[in-house]
Amino acid sequence: MGKRLPSSPFLSLALAFFFLFLAKSSDALQVGFYNKTCPDVERIVRKTVIAFYKNDATITAPLLRLHFHDCFVEGCDGSVLLNSTATNRAEKDAKPNLSLDGFYVIDTAKAELEAKCPGVVSCADILALAARDAVSLATNLVSSGRWSKDYNMYQVETGRRDGNVSSESNALNNLPSSFWGIYKLKRNFASKGLSLKDLAVLSAAHAIGNSHCKSFAKRMYNYTGKGDMDPLMEKSYANKLKKQCTATDTIRVVEMVPGSSTTFDPTYFKLVIDKKALFHSDEALLRSQVTRDYVFSHVNNNTGFFHDFGVSMVKMGRNQVLEGQMGEIRKICAVRN
Ligand code: HEM
């Protein structure tokens, strides 16, 4: 007769926890979540991002920002991708989101993934992967001097599910403002599980892309309502920006880093130090010891900064994710199933 396992209540409990852990871990956010169910997912997303990038290198910034705006509102659940309906104004239609772009890249990747592995890969994960691929493309040009399609700045955990809730008011209540100071930024980031260091690191996403004049024009024209300039903006730079933006301009955009809107590197920190970054929220990084030290110590440290950026992006990507059976896997990213 074979040996029987001793039937102790402790053993049963331990086994129950073990199986619970197994069930939980296979459903949880992890690198390679789709290895068995859709092994080509990373290749397909990358190929899609590269195709759009080759046509227009400025696509990297909107993809990175899209993931950030997704994660800060209702967690990283693809809710920023949902369209408004007759009865609901979605996140997409909140004022700070009207300048979002790059949705078509996610939709293109999703269409191919639905054809290959129907109902398997979430829109939230496609967005997280596309953001990583975008920033890697923008970085690689700098770090190696030549373009390699295989370069990944960091590994993306996948296994997110798509959420069903998307509301304009949630977006307005959760997205940080470019006019905020360090205290509000710290509180906002802390509410997403992110530290002051993460704030300094992730703000450097403003190394790529553009901003509409209206997001910072007040700093040059009417900072405190008395027709004055923000004293924390370098004067000659403010005057230069005035030539690009009128006080009430709603159309025009300005490069975050002049002459380098598609190159991701820590030179953004140099602009912050020189008081030439566009937003009050960028300048605010000089107002806490932690963020200030980070800015000064990483302005010439590409390798350290790239490493930290990956760590902070992974952390941001864990915010309030839906796992297991929660939410859904959308068929089309802009509409619920
Ligand atoms: C710290 C708080 C932040 C504030 C207040 C902020 C605010 C803004 C604003 C106002 C714009 C310009 C929008 C426009 O007028 O066109 C912008 C652009 C951008 N933001 Fe942020 N942002 C913050 C953090 C982040 C983070 C954490 C990321 C990504 C990890 C990010 C990525 C970007 C990118 C890439 C752009 C350029 C988008 C484009 O060119 O289309 N931002 N941000």
Automatic annotation (TrEMBL):
Binds 1 heme b (iron(II)-protoporphyrin IX) group per subunit. InterPro entries: Haem_peroxidase, Haem_peroxidase_sf, Peroxidase_pln, Peroxidases_AS, Peroxidases_heam-ligand_BS, Secretory_peroxidase. The keyword Signal applies. Substrate binds at residue 176. It catalyses: 2 a phenolic donor + H2O2 = 2 a phenolic radical donor + 2 H2O. Keywords: Calcium, Disulfide bond, Glycoprotein, Heme, Hydrogen peroxide, Iron, Metal-binding, Oxidoreductase, Peroxidase, Secreted, Signal. One of its GO terms (molecular function) is lactoperoxidase activity. The keyword Cytoplasm does not apply. GO terms for biological process: hydrogen peroxide catabolic process; response to oxidative stress. Disulfide bonds join 38-117, 71-76, 123-333, 213-245. Belongs to the peroxidase family. Ascorbate peroxidase subfamily. Belongs to the peroxidase family. Classical plant (class III) peroxidase subfamily. Removal of H(2)O(2), oxidation of toxic reductants, biosynthesis and degradation of lignin, suberization, auxin catabolism, response to environmental stresses such as wounding, pathogen attack and oxidative stress. These functions might be dependent on each isozyme/isoform in each plant tissue. This is Peroxidase. The lineage of its organism: Eukaryota, Viridiplantae, Streptophyta, Embryophyta, Tracheophyta.
